[in-house]
Amino acid sequence: MDHSTIQLAAVHEGGDAWLADCSEHPGLVRSAWDDEHLAPIATGTSWLVAETQLVLGMPALSRIREEHRGPVLADPSSDTAQWLVPPGAAEELADLRAVKVHPAGWSLRCPPTRRSIEGRFWLARPDGSGRLTDPAVLAAAFGPGGGRRLSAKAPA
């Protein structure tokens, strides 16, 4: 194995370990992946999920520099991109039209970092560092005003 292959394997192992450790039952997560199943990981303690349409999420992803990007899961069959954001991000993203933040306790059905399962794959893989996408950065990536909803009291 060359050096870059070894480094990539270490990133995948670190990302998988981090994801599994975000679950209350890391062993069950690893068993699901070993059996080629998605592993449900409940949100809330480590992160929340901000969901966008995949078609809108792809351009937003390209606007965020890699060092500011947290993990992003793609599910083409449901046209969704699921961004891992800090647990307190719901309020900050509440008025974005293009983003739905799932509440704590919602389960994200995750594949491991190194392969796709049931069509789901990581657009931006967890690397084991615990880095998440800052909600302000995510909002800015959706363009001027971050795709914010208009206030009901705003003049027409």
Radius of gyration: 16 Å
Order the strands across the largest sheet as they lie in space.
5-2-4-3-7
- Give the distance, in angstroms, between the N- and C-terminal Cα atoms: 63 Å
Structural class: alpha+beta
How many alpha or pi helices?
Answer: 5
| Low-confidence spans | 3-12, 146-156
DSSP, total strands: 7
Which strand-content bin applies to the residues? 15-25%
Write the element-wise H/E pattern from the N-terminal end onward. HHEEHEEHEEEH
Query: Mean pLDDT, as a whole number?
Result: 87
Main sheet makeup? 5 strands, antiparallel
Residues in helix, %: 25-40%
Shape: globular
What does it look like?
This protein has 156 residues and is an alpha+beta fold. Helix content is 32%, strand content 19%. The protein has 5 helices and 7 strands, in the order ααββαββαβββα. It has helices at 3-21, 26-34, 54-63, 89-93, 135-141, and strands spanning 39-42, 48-53, 72-75, 80-85, 100-101, 107-110, 121-124. The strands form 2 sheets. The protein has a 5-stranded antiparallel beta sheet. The radius of gyration is 16 Å and the shape is globular. Mean pLDDT is 87; it is low at 3-12 and 146-156.
Quick description:
The chain has 156 residues and is an alpha+beta fold.
List keywords for this structure.
two-stranded antiparallel ribbon, alpha+beta
